[in-house]
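If your schedule permits, I should be very grateful for your opinion on a structural question. Thank you for your consideration; the sequence and its tokens are set out here:

===
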Amino acid sequence: MTARVCVFTEPHRGADYEDQLRCAQLVEACGFEGFFRADHYQAMGADPGLPGPTDAWLTLGALARETSRIRLGTLVTSATFRLPGPLAVTVAQVDRMSGGRVELGLGAGWYEREHTSYGIPFPPAPERFDRLEEQLAVLTGLWRTPVGEHFSHHGDHYQLLDAPALPKPVQVPAPPIIVGGRGPKRTPQLAARYADEFNMPFKSVAETARAYRRVAEACERTGRAEAGRAPLVLSTGVVVAIGRTDADAQRRAAPLHVRSALPPEDPVIGSPAQLVDRLGEFSAIGTGRFHLRLIDFTDLDHLELIAGEVLPQL
């Protein structure tokens, strides 16, 4: 099989900018396609995640200047964190700083505790999804508006009047948008309408296959192909804890057993061969891109092990 493999990281577990820089540069040197990071302002368990959170887009802007090849993006930015107009400016600017290597994963937001901690409004789920849909409309509208023209949006939650729709991203017509999640209704609809990639995070092959079927049906209902839009890239997030020995794998898996706010996941714990097998199973159901979630930023040997013994087999 041929696979696109990215590394997904969670700096809110405990990583400063220098940790992320070392990891991103090694991701590039090892031949992975991209470096993606979570967008959270707080750790999710008892461990405070010292030295504390780093802003996703500020960090990606810096990494854009310190790397040259890898794709850079979020899985996923929360629509509750930023207004869509300024977010469009931010992402377009980082895209320009990177020479056109940015992708935006955008979701409705789910971790209420970090909102409470930092004074960020956290409306009920239906409103959060309404806001997400409007944000997607605003972002794509601003980026696709020709230079010299203006963009307006009159929605229930956001109103833009005669925006100059600048700066433009390097990527034309826009940076790729990733929409994903386990939701059975609105998430597939939003992916079919606005996204370039649909991501199913950290679930089993069977659950992922069901999610892919739901999004395929949504694409048919919305007439995506008839509108001339490219098929959605189907991706999956895979939690990884592998080692040269079983003891190494179990040591890397230890943080997965710590209680947190995360929903249940289906990690790969074991040998490089087990990870190759799991990725093969995902590929068989249509997965075209993988986001491998690595837990410890300081464990660069884990990254090199995957690059040396897994990537060559894909």
In short: The longest strand covers residues 233-242. The two ends are 6 Å apart (CA to CA).
